[in-house]
């Protein structure tokens, strides 16, 4: 299957290559499944009259319990032939050749087996992944599956049509495409593919008719640029060069730096050769608006240096028209691109020019804000404050107004002007009581008292604010209440401090500040801590009873396809089917938990944990006891446990710490590579991995590349070696090691030298990098959750707490 452009949909062969990158993350559960019943037993049904009419429009419904028939791999079910078991195992380990041989052996040995249609589909899928001359074989197998496997018939038809197209079998391509209804999820794309096939076989008129309909009817689809390129090619072949050129010109302006641009450029060259020079120039000479559009697209693709170069040239061409639309557009883009490049002097200069000469432009408010930040970055604090002041004075109703006051306040603090800092914070809170920066203003005002050891004032201010702190996110929940209790502790009001810490631990369960509060409680009163942690961890033994809600899901064709794909091990395809269901059912979190459960039980942890992590807002509002424990275990799984256990024990690291880092860094996807080229489960840079390999006696460390770090065992081995160094360098302080994993040894040492006299809790609040500050809180919280769920002796509640020392380690070097 040929690769499609970045704007288009990737066919199954390419999808397989991408999906197999994730598949290594899936731990095979063969032993677990061997005792499961044969696939497809009758569903367990429980009569339930409690479901509301609002949810299901009826008073009594059948509740469908979720059992192994929703997630058990088909090829690992009880009684499945050995060939199918071997095929599934090989497929999940990216050993497609072995999987193909096993499936071929199964088809030969068990021609009438109930699993034969599924085996045929998977064999086609694997043949498809090989590409080349295997596409013809894949197409025939898909067409066979389309007639024998109704559950995934449209998948087989569309995937088969793409394989047939690659094999230049136009008749089969068109036949399979026509068999797909337009109501199918593959309907629009099959129509596009049919247009491609018509064009390939020389039926230009019909191809143009079909492709024009596709472009017209599916203009907003992400893959439509591919259809536009095909339509332009059809116009070319029909001699309609001007129409073709117009499409190519628009696409190369809109999608610079992509494969779309490359194909459009090729088209432009062909059309230019066919047109008279004057007509070609008129068609392809980009207007100023075209060039600005292109620069905006380049900016969005982080091609900032190119933006500066191209917009500087265009700006020079209109230098005599300062204040014109083109001059303002180019100046603004140059400023933004320089900001992204951290060329703050250049950025500030261009923002100031824009503000001065483009006063009627709606972007002035953004230029004032960004310009103020740039000026602060180059220590032009007075001018920065002037720009921020202009925002809250001239645009008091804009969402940037309260942000501007806070920035100005922070600038005054950085210059030691504490009185003006506090005055502006008070002004912000009074003037913008509903602003999105209210929580930050309250915290800065409170912390100014706390840092100044004015603990009585800090307590009074916290009491004045009460519950209206605005602290509601992952990084701030319980913050002021915790530091109020710390203020009480500093004043020697021990009993009140204890009650304050208890309150935090109860009000914001499993949060970063609850963890700190319980640590302080243990330090101040071991007996009260023991009582409190025992109460918080009391478990009634109840466990979640998983049922389909709404129960109509069991008969929904999309849900059935998702389950079918899941049980074949095609997890990304299953996710797409499940995602499509979200708009068809009442909004609620129950459906999301069902999807998380199914992916978890199927071993697709990279997908399962991400649902509560990213999509379920209410998750994490209680301790992991009773039925809530089941939810926490879905959100905090332990894939690769044999490898993590082995290397964590060897390094004398807490397993919980390794999992907290891994969850944060890669989301359990072993083949992920970041934009910064960090690779694999623990997101190692290649130079770091090589250094760790040398220190751990790995053979030929210089030969390690990113692709090698996609191996889970090697990645965990080297990642834990790096984490071990941090852990030991910082006297086994878990949260300082966590900060180091994100911020780096050098930065941590510098911050320890600058502010090492602070207690840990305040030191974290003063970390100057927002990303590292948030990372430290977030991963420390994950560390605690993993420890609670899986660490220590379950009979001793105190083992569920992670010790976070207040005393910071010294710099490591």
Q: Could you characterize the architecture of this molecule?
A:
The protein is mostly helical and 813 residues long. It folds into five domains: 53-70 and 543-624, no CATH class; 73-285, Tetratricopeptide repeat domain (Serine Threonine Protein Phosphatase 5, Tetratricopeptide repeat, Alpha Horseshoe), CATH 1.25.40; 286-378, Alpha Horseshoe (Serine Threonine Protein Phosphatase 5, Tetratricopeptide repeat); 455-536; 642-800, Lysozyme, CATH 1.10.530. The chain is 64% helix and 1% strand. The chain contains 43 helices and three strands. The chain has a three-stranded antiparallel β-sheet. Helix 5 packs antiparallel against helix 6 (116-130) and helix 13 (241-254) crosses helix 16. The chain is globular, with a radius of gyration of 31 Å. The model is unreliable at 1-61 (pLDDT under 50).
Brief descriptors of the model:
813 residues, mainly alpha, Serine Threonine Protein Phosphatase 5, Tetratricopeptide repeat, 5 domains, 43 helices, 1% strand, disordered N terminus
């Amino acid at each position: 299957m040929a690769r499609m452009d970045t704007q288009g949909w990737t066919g199954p062969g390419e999808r397989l290559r991408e999906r197999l990158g994730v598949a290594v993350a899936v731990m095979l559960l063969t032993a677990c499944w061997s005792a499961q019943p044969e696939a497809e037993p009758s569903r367990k049904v429980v009569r339930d009259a409690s479901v509301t009419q609002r949810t299901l429009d009826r008073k009594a419904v059948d509740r469908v319990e979720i059992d192994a028939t929703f997630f058990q791999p088909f090829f690992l079910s009880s009684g499945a032939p050995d060939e199918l078991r071997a095929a599934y195992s090989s497929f999940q380990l990216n050993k497609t050749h072995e999987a193909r041989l096993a499936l071929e052996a199964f088809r030969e040995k068990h021609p009438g087996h109930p699993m034969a249609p599924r085996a045929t589909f998977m064999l086609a899928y694997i043949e498809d992944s090989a590409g080349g001359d295997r596409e013809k074989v894949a197409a025939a197998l898909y067409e066979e599956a389309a007639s024998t496997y109704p559950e995934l018939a449209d998948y087989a038809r569309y995937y088969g049509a793409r394989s047939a197209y690659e094999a230049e079998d136009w008749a089969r391509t068109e036949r399979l495409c026509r068999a797909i209804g337009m109501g199918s999820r593959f309907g629009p794309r099959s129509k596009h593919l049919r247009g491609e096939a018509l064009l390939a076989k020389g039926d230009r008129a019909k191809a143009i008719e079909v492709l024009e309909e596709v472009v017209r009817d599916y203009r907003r689809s992400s893959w439509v640029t591919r259809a536009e390129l095909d339509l332009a090619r059809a116009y070319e072949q029909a001699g309609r060069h001007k129409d073709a050129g117009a499409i190519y010109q628009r696409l190369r302006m809109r999608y610079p730096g992509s494969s779309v641009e490359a194909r459009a450029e090729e088209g432009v060259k062909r059309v230019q050769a066919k047109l008279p020079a004057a007509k070609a120039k008129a068609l392809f000479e980009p207007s100023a608006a075209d060039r600005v559009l292109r620069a905006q697209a380049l900016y969005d693709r982080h091609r900032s240096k190119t933006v500066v170069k191209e917009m500087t040239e265009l700006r020079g061409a209109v230098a005599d028209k300062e204040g014109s639309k083109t001059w303002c557009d180019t100046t603004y883009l140059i400023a933004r691109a320089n900001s992204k490049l951290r060329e703050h002097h250049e950025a500030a200069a261009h923002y100031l020019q824009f503000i001065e000469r483009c006063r009627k432009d709606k972007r002035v408010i953004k230029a004032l804000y960004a310009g103020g930040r740039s000026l602060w970055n180059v220590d032009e604090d007075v001018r920065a404050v002037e720009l921020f002041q202009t925002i809250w004075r001239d645009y008091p109703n804009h969402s940037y107004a309260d942000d501007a006051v806070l920035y100005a306040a922070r600038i005054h603090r950085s210059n030691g002007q504490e009185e003006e800092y506090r005055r502006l914070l008070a002004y912000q809170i009074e003037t913008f009581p509903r602003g999105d920066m209210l929580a930050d203003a309250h915290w800065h005002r409170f912390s100014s008292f706390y840092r100044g050891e004015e603990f009585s004032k800090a307590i009074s201010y916290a009491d004045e604010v009460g519950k209206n702190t605005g602290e509601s996110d992952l990084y701030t929940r319980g913050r002021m209440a915790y530091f109020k209790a710390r203020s009480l502790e500093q004043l020697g009001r021990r009993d009140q401090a204890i009650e304050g810490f208890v309150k935090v631990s109860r009000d914001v369960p499993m949060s970063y500040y609850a963890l700190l509060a319980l640590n302080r409680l243990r330090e101040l009163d071991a007996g009260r801590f023991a009582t409190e942690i025992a109460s918080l961890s009391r478990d009634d033994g109840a466990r979640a009873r998983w049922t389909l809600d709404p129960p109509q899901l069991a008969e929904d064709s999309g849900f059935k396809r998702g389950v079918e794909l899941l049980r074949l091990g095609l997890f990304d395809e299953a996710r797409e089917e499940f995602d499509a269901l979200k708009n068809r059912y009442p909004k609620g979190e129950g459906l999301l938990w069902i999807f998380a459960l199914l992916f978890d039980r199927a071993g697709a942890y990279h997908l399962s944990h991400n649902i509560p992590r990213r999509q379920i807002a209410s998750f994490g509002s209680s301790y992991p006891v009773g039925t809530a424990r089941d939810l926490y275990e879905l959100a905090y799984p332990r894939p690769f446990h044999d490898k993590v256990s082995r290397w964590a024990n060897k390094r004398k690291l807490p397993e919980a710490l390794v999992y907290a880092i891994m969850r944060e860094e890669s989301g359990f996807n072993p083949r992920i590579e970041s934009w910064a080229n960090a690779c694999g489960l623990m997101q190692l840079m290649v130079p770091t991995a090589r250094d760790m390999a040398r220190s751990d006696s790995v053979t030929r460390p210089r030969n390690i590349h990113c692709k090698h770090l996609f191996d889970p065992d090697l990645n965990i081995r080297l990642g834990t070696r790096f984490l071990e160094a941090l852990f030991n360098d910082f006297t086994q302080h878990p949260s300082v090691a966590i900060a180091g994993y994100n911020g780096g040894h050098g930065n941590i040492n510098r911050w320890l030298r600058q502010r090492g006299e602070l207690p840990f809790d305040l030191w974290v609040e003063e970390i100057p990098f927002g990303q590292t500050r948030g990372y430290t809180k977030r991963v420390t919280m994950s560390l605690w959750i993993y420890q609670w769920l899986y660490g220590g002796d379950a009979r001793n509640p105190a083992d569920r707490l992670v010790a976070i020392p207040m005393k910071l380690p010294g710099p490591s070097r």
